Amino acid sequence: MSNQYEHAEEVLVEGHLIDSMILTRILDRIMELEGDFEIIEFKVGKRKHDYSRARLIVKGRSKEHLDEILKELYRLGAVPVEYKEVELKPAPKDGVAPDGFYSTSNYPTEIFYQGSWIPVEDVMMDKVIVVDPQSKRATCIPLREIKKGDLVVVGERGIRVRPPERPRESLKIFEFMSSKVSPEKPSTSIVKHIARDMHSIKRRGGKIAVVAGPAVVHTGGAPALAKIIRLGYVDVLLAGNALAVHDVEYALFGTSLGIKVDEGVAAPKGHRNHLAAINEIMKVGSLRDAVEKCILNRGIIYECIVKGVPYVLAGSIRDDGPLPDVITDVVEAQKAYRKHLKGIEMVLMLASTLHSIAVGNMLPATVKVVCVDINPATIIKLLDRGTAHAVGVVSDVGVFLKMLADELWSLSAT
What's the CATH class of domain 83-166? Predict the structure, then answer.
């Protein structure tokens, strides 16, 4: 061993190491952190479903340097050869984690506790792990939900992370486009793949969430999204005040931000239409009241209400109104999002940067994500902020939704 690297530790990596690029990412990270490595064993799986296995000696210039490298490798799926019990410390007070707390990723995670591996429930990125010693359950929670005395995981010891792997069976679009941004307009084949995945999920009883921004209405996509909801392909709608306001504006006046959606021209005094839409809802008390009194009789929110599809509208400082249904406390809105995302298998993110990134932070990496936006930067931001498994489609969301609604209609009819 070179004198430059005086500290070393052996780690083990298992999985589909070659086609899922797991080993490549681990070796790249070692070199990026200016460490060294030696592969002492590498067994390649011979059949399609066989795992490969690699043992490495990882080297650092000092103990601190080696620890820094190992922390990164453990997050990429490497584990120590000798398992050690996870370290727990009590929270000093409500909303405060002990020093050195472990910050989670969105990958499936386990902890080695009392001699066995325990899966961490409700995995999300940038959270902490709390352990209940009586039930032997580990749960991922935000900092603000910590209670004084909670046993919180600290350090990197006794933690095993499983990065998502390339699918071994056909998963349609998620096999050939995963983690990529498609620069083309949505071709028929891409939309068909997405529609077939949605249809397959619903046939087996799975759940699909939609995250949508007001551009869905501006681009003329509201009728198509309403149709998709009517067909039963949406289990929850997550959005902000603006989507609902402009959906109501379009339903009542045929405009969005004062522009006639079907003609693309400004309506006389159209600049006040979104305020008039808010005012109409305020008169009756809520969006549901507007539907029940036949004031609101079409659109995205209308279909959610008549189909019994829950929707969560999260407020912001920019909101006009806001509508009575909007949750203006951002902490409560985040809780509502998290509640409705439990058990979701697929999320469609439609032309919404902030809400898409927020939802991405609440999802485990095992959830399928399709992000559609005319601006590639929106998709890149989502990928860069941790939702690296998302499929990106660069497209006018109105065009995309019309094509998707037609495909889903055909699948439902057959």
Answer: mainly beta
